[in-house]
Every structure is written in structure tokens, then in C-alpha cells.
């Protein structure tokens, strides 16, 4: 939608899916840089933000909290966060930080079904 009024909506658009890959460690030392990359990805207004952690070696509390915050921001913006991981310890750390299971973790190489991403 485009509205030419100075106080109205200028444009409304969304990108279907944006994928961000994390390689190495997602920890207290790298979380700030990862946060900036995720901010840039979210500026594209994706319906689904995929965080591919297949090449992530370790995840600590700071990294897990960044993922939880990103999930909350995506939800607030009307989107969904999906995390892909191969290492069981990554999924275990996320589950510990997410006792209610709100962040979707799928095995690497598998895509989240479209209906699970809010029916889009």
C-alpha cells in the first residue's frame, strides 16, 4: 500500500524469508556483532527469519539470550524466527534458555513448514 499523504503510511511491504548463518561461536564476545547482523536482517521485514547455526560450534548464555530477544522482536514485528542446528548441545542450550519452547529449532537441512511460520 502506498499513501501519498505526508502523515500516512508511505509503503507497506515484507520479504518472505531471510536467512542468517552463524559460523564459529555465538557467545559473549561475538553476540554484539551477531546482533548487528540480525538487526540488518530484520530491517528487511521478513515474514520468517531463519538463523542457520549448522556451522556454529558453541552457544553460551549471551548467544541464547540474543536468540530469545530476536524471537521476541520478530514476533512483535509480526514475523517468525526459525533456528536450524546440527549440534545437540546448541539445541540443549536453547531449550534451557527457553523453558516454554517458543523458539522453533529444526535440524539442519530441514526447512520449517510454511504453515508453522504463521500460515504464510
UniProtKB/TrEMBL annotation:
Gene3D superfamilies cross-referenced by the UniProt entry: STAS domain
Entry superkingdom: Bacteria
STAS domain sequence ranges: 20-95
What Pfam families is this protein classified in?
STAS_2 (PF13466)
- Classification via InterPro entries: MlaB-like_STAS (IPR058548), STAS_dom (IPR002645), STAS_dom_sf (IPR036513)
Name the UniProt record assigns to this protein: STAS domain-containing protein
UniProt organism field: Catellatospora coxensis
Amino acid at each position: 500500500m502506498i499513501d501519498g499523504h505526508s502523515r500516512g503510511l508511505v509503503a507497506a511491504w515484507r520479504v518472505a524469508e531471510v536467512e542468517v548463518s552463524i559460523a564459529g561461536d555465538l557467545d559473549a564476545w561475538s553476540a554484539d556483532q551477531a546482533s548487528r547482523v540480525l538487526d540488518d536482517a530484520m530491517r528487511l521485514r521478513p515474514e520468517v527469519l531463519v538463523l542457520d547455526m549448522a556451522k556454529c560450534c558453541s552457544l553460551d548464555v549471551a548467544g541464547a539470550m540474543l536468540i530469545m530477544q530476536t524471537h521476541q522482536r520478530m514476533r512483535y514485528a509480526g514475523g517468525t524466527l526459525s533456528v536450524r542446528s546440527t549440534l545437540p548441545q546448541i539445541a540443549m542450550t536453547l531449550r534451557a534458555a527457553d523453558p516454554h519452547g517458543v523458539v522453533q529449532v529444526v535440524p539442519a537441512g530441514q526447512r520449517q513448514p510454511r504453515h508453522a511460520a504463521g500460515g504464510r
